[in-house]
């Protein structure tokens, strides 16, 4: 596409603020309309919102993939200057607060999101094999037991009036992850609280009592406080795994060694544990809740998948596209580059809008309709390229098994009250979904 083919309409301030600011994510309807406007009028637009660095809003599926497949051009963690770039978009005050804690680095967490190859590759290899489908297959029976247990414990035959998010969806994925880690069930409430605080940095419903609300630094303060609490908990787990190795994921991570034969620094293990305990839990629960809401909205799809349970994997994929539980990551150009006819300059930042890419009409027919028969379904809910989510196969396995167990029991599902999206520009999903679930 040449420059002359590009839409040239300037981005209204209202749309830029809707996409960039956490409070713009209070309501999915206007947010998705903002994405649509951008795709149709200025699909690669550089905007400046007060308090934030200038950022390119990347809304098209093809552009997202082009950026993601080239980490040497579009760095996540800073490239040749590790820690000089924050892959999680926050305001300038938040970034300055983070640097004040770390001595000048934005790399507040030793996890894959903040790393670039070759360091990213080395750390990813610690547990990459564990997350492969062939290995996960041996955990399928255990995960099915946990799914059945969740249904038996939290639902009953007949009419269930509940908040599907708070009363059901949050618990099963967390229980799976903690079981695979070997974390005692008695500690799961603490993990639940930290997970919600970790992702709810701009959401009043997830505000920590020890963080002053409504200040520019609040999100970074809460993020840092949650990380420190995670570190304190997982330090004991690392020490125990190194002293008493077991056949579990936690031991693989805690006892991983570098090429010189020495253990990785414990902060690397903390980073792994935090990533799995948060992203591996919250995104799966968000997708599950979004799927139930969609099946209530499109009851013919519920009937179809109940009649043809072999289509449950297709339901999982469409649910991932529909929800896109990770809304964005940011990248920074390491060199000048031309993208969609636009001249990119070294140092420019990009907000990769996966939700928008997954509603791109050039890739998905009828993108605003939930369709389990969508083939192909080239969603990028797990990202793309080297940073593609390592836990994607586990997430799909958890969702497939839960739907295999739950869907045959459902006689009817309807949304009975006002849904409430999570108010953050980082992760998607719902904080509240009142439903009436009638089970056999």
The gist of it:
With 440 residues, this protein is α+β, with helices and mostly antiparallel strands. The chain has 17 helices and twelve strands. A hairpin with a 2-residue loop joins strand 6 (337-339) and strand 7 (342-344).
Q: How would you describe this structure to a colleague?
A:
The chain is of the alpha+beta class and 440 residues long. The chain is 45% helix and 11% strand. It is built from 17 helices and twelve strands. It has a five-stranded mixed β-sheet with strand order 1-2-8-5-3, sandwiched between helices. Strands 4-12-9 form a three-stranded antiparallel β-sheet.
Q: How do the helices and strands follow one another from N- to C-terminus?
A: HHEEHEHHHHEHHHHHHHHEEEEHHEEEE
Q: Average pLDDT across residues? A: 91
Provide the spatial order of strands within the biggest beta sheet: 1-2-8-5-3
- Specify the biggest β-sheet: 5 strands, mixed
Separation of termini? 55 Å
Task: State the share of residues found in helices, binned by percent.
Answer: 40-55%
Low-confidence stretches: none
Structural class: alpha+beta
* Record field, number of beta strands: 12
Oligomer: single chain
- Radius of gyration computed on alpha carbons: 21 Å
Percent strand = 5-15%
Q: How many helices does DSSP assign? A: 17
Coarse shape: globular
How are the elements arranged and paired?
Layout: H1 13-20, H2 28-41, E1 44-47, E2 55-58, H3 61-68, E3 74-75, H4 92-102, H5 119-124, H6 133-136, H7 140-154, E4 158-163, H8 164-169, H9 171-181, H10 188-199, H11 218-243, H12 249-254, H13 266-297, H14 299-307, H15 312-323, E5 328-333, E6 337-339, E7 342-344, E8 349-353, H16 354-357, H17 392-406, E9 410-415, E10 420-421, E11 430-432, E12 434-439
Parallel strand pairs: 2-8
Antiparallel strand pairs: 1-2, 3-5, 4-12, 5-8, 6-7, 9-12, 10-11
Helix pairs in contact: 1-2, 4-11, 7-9, 7-17, 9-13, 10-11, 10-13, 11-13, 13-14, 13-15, 13-17, 15-17
């Amino acid at each position: 596409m040449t420059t002359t083919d590009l839409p040239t309409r300037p981005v209204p301030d209202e749309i830029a603020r809707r996409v960039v600011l956490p409070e713009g994510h209070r309501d999915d309807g206007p947010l998705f309309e903002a994405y649509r406007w951008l795709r149709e009028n200025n699909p690669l637009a550089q905007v400046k919102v007060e308090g934030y660095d200038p950022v390119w809003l990347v809304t098209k599926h093809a552009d997202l993939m082009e950026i993601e497949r080239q980490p040497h051009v579009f760095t996540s963690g800073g490239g040749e200057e590790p820690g000089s770039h924050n892959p999680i978009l926050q305001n300038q005050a938040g970034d300055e607060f983070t640097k004040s804690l770390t001595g000048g680095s934005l790399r507040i967490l030793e996890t894959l999101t903040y790393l670039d190859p070759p360091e990213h590759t080395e750390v990813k290899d610690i547990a990459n094999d564990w997350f492969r489908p062939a290995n996960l297959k041996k955990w399928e029976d255990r995960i099915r037991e946990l799914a059945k247990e969740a249904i038996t414990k939290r639902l009953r035959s007949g009419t269930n009036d509940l908040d599907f998010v708070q009363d059901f969806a949050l618990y099963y994925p967390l229980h799976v992850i903690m079981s695979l880690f070997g974390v005692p069930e008695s500690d799961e409430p603490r993990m639940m609280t930290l997970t919600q605080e970790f992702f709810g940095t701009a959401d009043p419903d997830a505000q920590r009592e020890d963080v002053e609300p409504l200040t520019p630094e609040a999100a970074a303060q809460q993020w840092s406080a949650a990380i420190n609490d995670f570190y304190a908990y997982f330090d004991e787990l690392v020490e125990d795994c190194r002293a008493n190795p077991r056949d579990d994921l936690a031991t693989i991570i805690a006892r991983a060694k570098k090429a010189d034969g020495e253990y990785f620094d414990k902060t690397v293990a903390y980073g792994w544990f935090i990533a799995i305990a948060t992203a591996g839990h919250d995104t799966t629960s968000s997708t599950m809740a979004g799927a139930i809401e969609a099946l209530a909205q499109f009851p013919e799809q519920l009937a179809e998948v109940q009649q043809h349970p072999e289509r449950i994997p297709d339901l999982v994929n469409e649910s991932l596209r529909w929800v896109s539980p990770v809304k964005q990551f940011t990248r920074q150009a390491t060199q000048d580059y031309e993208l969609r006819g636009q001249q990119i300059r070294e140092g420019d930042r990009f907000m990769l809008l996966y939700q928008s890419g997954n509603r791109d009409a050039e890739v998905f027919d009828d993108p605003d309709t939930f369709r389990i028969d969508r083939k192909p379904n080239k969603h990028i809910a797990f990202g793309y390229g080297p940073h593609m989510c390592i836990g994607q196969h586990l997430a799909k396995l958890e969702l497939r098994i839960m739907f295999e167990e739950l869907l045959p029991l459902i006689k009817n599902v309807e949304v009975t009250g006002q849904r409430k999206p999570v108010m953050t520009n980082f992760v998607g999903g719902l904080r509240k979904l009142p439903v009436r679930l009638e089970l056999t």
